[in-house]
């Protein structure tokens, strides 16, 4: 039965009469496998569509589920495709399509992010989104909190399993203060939220987030903002802030290097220390450091 009480039936539908209401990008390798599979053994599962009347009397359909299969049929030059025809509203068709994409076993983190955002923008509460997608309410609430703060980079890290959700929320709660963020990382480590590789991944993500910003990149589907004088000023200020942060980090690194060079010069001035290093076979330095410790690049 369809969502509106009418029995769903499988029919052969012309592929050129089907409109995709929630298109998404697809991995070329995966798509090629779908095409090859359908070419070899046929369509194992029909697509799902819902009919729509048109002014000229030509029957049209909105695709609810099965975009990959539909594209494969078109790529194979097929004119008709088996489809399960259901009667649902435009809103329900979009939601069914969206949640089917989110609930797939293999999805891209950006697709999940976009799907949850779309459901929220359509007025769905976290509990309703969780019910429609099979995700936990706590997980959806956490993702939505990250999205409200524009933390797409952290959302993707969570989806890829690089860091746990509760650790990402701790990082966001720390704000923009480097000290507070480092304290949040330390707390996450002490509490067992971040250990080993995850701690290293978290540090890399925070560094990229600091330098490149919180947004994930070009692939995230979102409306292009209007360019205004104030937005240009904000963009300029953000870029200046990033440049200042890079300069500050470079200066800090240079100070550390000068400290190391000074310390090595003092140590290598001690003959007893040098003899000990020679006895252990450690009397040489990397060329970069040697050129700074000794003017000629080697011990006199």
UniProtKB/TrEMBL annotation:
UniProt xrefs under InterPro entries: Chromosome_partition/occlusion, ParB/RepB/Spo0J, ParB/Sulfiredoxin_sf, ParB_N, Plasmid_RepB
GO cellular component: chromosome
GO function terms (MF aspect): DNA binding
GO biological process: chromosome segregation
Family classification: Belongs to the ParB family.
Cited SUPFAM superfamilies: KorB DNA-binding domain-like, ParB/Sulfiredoxin
Pfam families tied to this protein: ParB_N, RepB
Name of the protein this chain belongs to: ParB/RepB/Spo0J family partition protein
Boundaries of every ParB-like N-terminal domain copy: 11-102
Ranges in a coiled coil: none
């Amino acid at each position: 039965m369809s969502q509106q009480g009418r029995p769903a039936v499988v029919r052969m539908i012309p592929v050129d009469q089907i409109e995709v209401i929630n298109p998404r990008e697809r991995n070329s390798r995966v798509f090629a496998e779908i095409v090859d599979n359908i070419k070899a053994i046929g369509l194992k599962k029909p697509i799902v569509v819902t009919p729509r009347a048109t002014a000229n009397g030509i029957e049209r359909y909105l695709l609810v589920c099965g975009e990959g299969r539909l594209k494969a049929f078109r790529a194979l030059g097929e004119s008709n495709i088996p489809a399960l025809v259901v009667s649902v509203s435009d809103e329900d068709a979009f939601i069914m399509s969206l949640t089917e994409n989110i609930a797939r076993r293999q999805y891209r983190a950006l697709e999940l992010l976009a799907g949850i955002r779309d459901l929220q923008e359509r007025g769905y509460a976290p509990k309703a989104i969780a019910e429609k997608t099979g995700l936990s309410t706590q997980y959806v609430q956490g993702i939505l909190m990250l999205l409200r703060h524009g933390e797409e980079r952290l959302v993707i890290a969570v989806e890829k399993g690089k860091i746990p959700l509760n650790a990402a929320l701790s990082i966001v709660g720390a704000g923009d203060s480097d000290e507070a963020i480092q304290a949040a990382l330390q707390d996450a480590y002490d509490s067992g939220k971040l250990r080993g590789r995850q701690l290293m991944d978290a540090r890399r993500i925070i560094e990229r987030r600091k330098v490149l910003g919180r947004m994930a990149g070009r692939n995230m589907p979102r409306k292009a903002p209007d360019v205004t004088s104030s937005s240009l000023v904000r963009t300029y200020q953000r870029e200046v802030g990033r440049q200042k942060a890079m300069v500050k980090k470079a200066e800090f690194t240079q100070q550390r290097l000068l400290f190391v060079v000074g310390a090595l010069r003092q140590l290598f001035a001690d003959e007893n220390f040098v003899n000990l290093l020679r006895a252990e076979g450690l009397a040489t330095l990397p060329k970069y450091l040697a050129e700074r410790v000794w003017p000629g690049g080697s011990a006199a």
